[in-house]
Design brief:
The complex is a heterodimer of chains A (378) and B (417). With 378 residues, chain A is of the alpha+beta class. Chain A contains twelve helices and nine strands. In chain A, the strands form two sheets. Chain A has a five-stranded mixed β-sheet, with no helix packed on it. In chain A, strands 2-1-4-7 form a four-stranded mixed β-sheet, with no helix packed on it. In chain A, helix 3 packs parallel to helix 9, helix 8 runs antiparallel to helix 11 and helix 9 packs antiparallel against helix 10. The chains are: A alpha+beta (378), B alpha+beta (417). Chain B: Belongs to the DyP-type peroxidase family.
């Protein structure tokens, strides 16, 4: 590991050389020239595959039958710039400041899915460091996962909110834990939206004096502790759905890097170690094990995506992680009726010795997981 | 220890765990680690506050008692013998570094920014503080890894003694590490880093912090007092009393059968968390306090004698006096080496001080040491009104790590040993 620093310096030097040679690379669009983007229901034609770095202009025309969205995206799917809701038959000019590097132009008919894509090389000085396509694929995969989780969560939250609004205590209780799963699976990404997280997932002890308490845990208290649904709760349920839609809308723009994925996986285990194992998370509903499982699944997803790279650099570490993920999964399975069920045992029924066993298993996984980021950047 | 004395091979030059064995050889040659003097480490302990790690016996038993303790009992979590053996090797490598005042692995800083450092860092800049790390194996360990027939008879289960009120959460353990040091931060750092190395293989079951050693293995120093304000164990075995150590503490090759020969040079450890009823003790008259112990409170002299180290006249004491009951002369010569510490874990929720004695005793055979002694004390000792045993564990403490290639437990786990 000590040798890494010099290697990193060498990599930077290599990137600088690349940047120099890139200066002479030929561009097929002249500086200031706009790229014509012709979007349709199944195609996304672009007039240039290469532009110089700096101000890039897309002249977009939607010739399809549905509204579309056009984006410039990094190879890891992070959005550089975008325009949503370009109606059929309409035009839009999108400009963005773009550094040298490899990008794609994505047209997303119906504003959904992966879209139709074209490569775009941005040439010139200030080239970004050499990219590892395997890591770009991992980040893109995780970005998609985060989006999927948000997409799946919104209808579940709506079911929960409808039950609250109907005053149906039993149905609301039943819908509570499932509505949280997607959020818990992607918590490090979800939490990166500093304005949404406090609104939806704050616990009583996270509040300042005078701060209005909203979100899941406020409703949890009404349902399990107060055992009644008031007018305020119905309003809160509606707000929760609104906030989660905001999350769903913005999650694709989250800043995700290979190391943030790796450390995010570890942070998910930290969440378990500090809040779930103690039963603090869902202190009224005692559905902590559902969140626990969600955190572990999310960590596992990030790990699986990074594993091809990490295994090359440190196969002993990935061997250990495989083993410890399996051990924790097996332990959690003891607390649910079937492997595909999320009806976990109520955490107030989980004894002190069992909590110790869970805590030990979390430590056994989290300690090697804390070394994943290093294995990814080696 | 000065900065100059700390020099020697830089740990930054090490290549992590894999390179530890190689690097340690260099460390010993460079003088960072004092050379073995047969396991006692008395003479060479002084200059840089480091106690030699290598020797016939583990340090932390007969070596001079330090001021502070962090003791931890662990449960084994792995089923894989090879993995457990690797842990013992990793622990040995880490213990070698830490007892020499060096950080674990690649250190606490300067590594990859994206990764947590190998060492937790809170002992940086502190002297080795005479840190000793002593490992022991509990009876339950011998139910694993096909070790059933290697359990020595001297590692006997303790019977239920009258008055015991043992808390399962403070009792037992597959293995233990006793960390003693003059600086509590150094002792805590050692256990914390071993626990970290061990995650996934072992898990901390319980641990105890101790301060104010209550006994000494250097008897020319004044006997320390316990939290009841009394001197106790003034006739403890000294680290220099080779004959008494051989007779009462170190396991001999002739003890037990061939299958327990791996314990030769080791010892058996009994750990008891003894809670004191501090408030009721403090309300007890001076006369009764002195009667209970069989000593005077000021000097620590036995009843009817003038000086602390005067030979006690047992018959002058009350029949239930602690010293009288515990004395070797009342117990057919039973002698144990005591290494206990006071503890205070705040208050107990009822406003009472949660405090007492964390009793640690080493002996050649638990059946001939602690068990008969505690049978007698638990039945008759006047002190019982003021104390309660709330935690208990017993461990086989294997012989010392001989050299930079040796590791804790090799004689038990290595088939060719």
């Amino acid at each position: 590991m000590r040798a890494v620093r010099p290697i990193a310096i060498a990599a930077t030097a290599a990137a600088a050389l690349t940047a120099l040679s890139a200066c002479t690379a030929k561009s097929d669009a002249k500086d200031g020239d706009a790229i014509q983007v012709t979007a349709a229901d199944t195609k996304c034609d672009t007039s240039a595959k290469s532009v110089p770095a700096g101000q890039v202009t897309l002249k977009i025309e939607n010739k399809g039958s549905r509204a579309t969205e056009v984006e410039i995206v990094f190879p890891d799917d992070r959005i550089v710039s975008e325009k949503e809701n370009i109606g059929p038959g309409t035009k839009y000019t999108l400009t963005a400041e773009v550094k040298a590097g490899s990008y794609e132009i994505a047209c997303r008919p119906g504003m959904k899915g992966h879209g139709v894509r074209q490569k775009l090389d941005v040439t010139g000085s200030g080239a970004s460091a050499k990219r590892n396509p395997a890591l770009d694929a991992a980040v893109a995969g995780y970005r998609q996962y985060a989006q999927d989780q948000a997409d799946e969560t919104v209808p579940l939250a709506e079911t929960f909110a409808k039950a609250v609004q109907a005053g149906d205590l039993a149905a609301a209780k039943k819908a509570y834990a499932p509505s949280r799963l997607g959020w818990e699976r992607t918590e490090p990404v979800a939490e990166s939206f500093g304005d949404i997280d406090p609104k939806v997932d704050t616990r009583a002890d996270g509040l300042e004096d005078g701060q209005k308490w909203t979100g899941w845990h406020r409703l949890e208290k009404s349902l399990w502790q107060d055992k009644k649904i008031g007018a305020g709760d119905k309003k809160l349920a509606a707000e929760l759905v609104t906030d989660l839609r905001d999350w769903q809308h913005r999650v694709g723009k989250a800043e995700i890097t290979p190391t943030s994925m790796a450390n995010g996986a570890k942070e998910l285990l930290d969440e378990v170690a500090t809040g779930k194992v103690t039963g603090e998370e869902d202190r009224y509903a005692h559905t902590d094990l559902v969140d626990f499982k969600g955190n572990v699944e999310g960590a596992q997803k990030a790990y699986e995506l990074l594993k091809p790279v990490a295994a090359k650099n440190d196969s002993a570490l990935t061997g250990e992680l495989d083993k410890q993920f399996a051990a924790l999964d097996k332990l959690l399975d003891k607390y649910r009726p079937a492997k595909d069920s999320y009806d976990f045992v109520s955490y107030d029924k989980v004894g002190k010795d069992q909590r110790k066993e869970l805590s030990d298993a979390v430590n056994a996984l989290a300690e090697p997981l804390s070394k994943l980021a290093a294995a990814v950047v080696k | 220890m000065t900065e100059n004395e700390r020099s020697g091979p830089s740990r930054r030059a090490l290549i992590g765990w894999g390179g530890a064995g190689l690097a340690l050889g260099a460390a010993a040659a460079g003088g960072g680690v004092a050379l073995s003097d047969g396991g006692l480490g008395l003479a060479s302990a002084a200059p840089d506050h480091a106690v030699p790690f290598h020797g016939t016996h583990q340090a932390g038993i007969a070596t001079p008692v330090q001021d502070r303790l962090h003791f931890a009992a662990f449960d084994v979590k792995t089923e894989d013998r090879a993995e457990f053996v690797q842990l013992l090797k990793d622990w040995t490598a880490a213990a070698r570094l830490m007892t020499a005042g060096k950080p674990v692995g690649e250190g606490a800083y300067g590594g990859l920014a994206e990764a947590p450092p190998d060492d937790t860092g809170e002992a940086l800049g502190l002297s080795p503080s005479r840190l000793t790390l002593t490992v022991g194996f509990g009876p339950s360990l011998f139910e694993r890894f096909g070790l059933a027939d290697r359990r020595p008879a001297g590692l006997a289960d303790l019977p239920k003694f009258p008055g015991d009120n043992l808390d399962a959460a403070r009792t037992g353990g597959d293995l233990c590490v006793q960390a003693c040091a003059d600086d509590p931060q150094v002792a805590v750092h050692a256990i914390r880093n071993l626990a970290r190395v061990g995650f996934g293989k072992v898990a901390v079951r319980w641990s105890q912090l101790g301060f104010g050693k209550t006994s000494s293995t250097t008897p020319d120093a004044q006997t320390p007092r316990n939290l009841m304000g009394f001197k106790d164990g003034t006739r403890n075995i000294a680290g220099t009393e080779t004959a008494r150590l051989d007779k009462h503490v170190w396991v001999s090759a002739s003890d037990g059968d061939a299958k327990s020969a791996w314990m030769t040079g080791g010892s058996y450890l009994v750990a008891r968390r003894i809670r004191m009823n501090i408030e009721t003790w403090d309300r007890t008259s001076l006369q009764e306090q002195e009667d209970v112990f069989g000593r005077d409170k000021g000097e620590g002299a036995p009843v009817g004698k003038a000086k602390e180290h005067d030979a006690p006249f047992l018959k002058a004491m009350k029949p239930d006096a602690h010293v009288r009951l515990a004395h070797p002369d009342s117990n057919g010569g039973i002698t144990i080496l005591r290494r206990g510490y006071s503890f205070t874990d705040g208050t107990d929720g009822l406003g009472r001080l949660d405090a007492g004695l964390f009793f640690l005793a080493y002996q050649r055979d638990v059946r001939e040491g602690f068990i008969p002694l505690q049978r007698r004390l638990s039945a008759h000792d006047a002190l019982n009104e003021y104390i309660q045993h709330v935690g208990s564990a017993v461990f086989a403490v294997p012989p010392g790590v001989r050299d930079p290639h040796d590791w804790w437990g090799r004689t038990l786990f290595s088939k060719e040993a």
